[in-house]
Predict the structure.
Amino acid sequence: MTQKQRMLSGMRPTGRLHLGHQRVIAYWAELSEIYESFHFTADWHAITTQFDDTGNLRDNKREIVIDWLSAGLDPEKCHIFHQSDIKEHAELHLLFSMITPLSWLERVPTYKGQVAAFAETGKDIATYGFLGYPLLMAADILMYRPVGVPVGQDQLPHVEFCRELARRFHHLYNVEIFPEPAPIFSQIEILPGTDNRKMSKSYNNYINLSDSAEVVKEKVWGMVTDPARIRKTDPGHPEVCAVYAYHGFYNKDAQQQICANCIKGSIGCGECKKMLTDRINVFLDPIREKRAYYENNPEVLDEIVDEGNKAARKVACETMEMVRDAMKI
Ligand code: SF4
């Protein structure tokens, strides 16, 4: 049997996941049919910006794994692990830091932007750790020698950084250890926030996978609709309405009819939101059920992560042996 090629992806454990994340997780699950897939909670990355607020870190790591499993990752088909459980990531990060010109880190497009964005909130994240964040990410990725990483367009510079670093390492030590990972672009259609802006924790415009039916109802009730529509009989403009956009994701078959009725002014926004609430709750029910299973069986969860850690550590140890050999350490 031919060995599957490897793929790696991670997420910062910063709280419960939302409907937008579910689409990414479903995509990861698809990829795990093709690749040997590693998924990790990037807890050290979370600390680069939340160094002053780590109280929930352990809970968040646990919650994100529950969300992943509830939303579609099959532990039989992928490896789930915590970054900080595999100490080799820290070693590779340190060794890479010896060969990485400072200018490479300073020119990463997101660096200055994020430092400025946090400064506006009164927080200084211009630390040694945050500057080295793309390097830690490169160590995370190259450690598993994957052929690809699933990314959005905005993360492309990080993958390019990784490829450049692999080339520099090979050139300096005259070895070929790391395949240059290719970006794996998804065709996932992006779900907007409940206010029709980009879905974001900072805008508080999302529905969590773990929200109860009642909370979903409240959030859908608060969704942004066509502001020009005052009475039910006013002709609507569904293209500016977040509820309408969500029908396209969770009530596809009825979306066209809703559009026609909205334009004609023959459906009220309340009725339209009620239909959407029902559809989202039907969609979330199996996810809630799985969540309840893992919450009630913590030993199963621990076992999944233990197995994932074992698989990750095995590859990480192999990589580090090659790296130490190459550097004559
Ligand atoms: S009827 Fe539905 S699609 Fe039309 S504005 Fe109201 S909520 Fe939006």
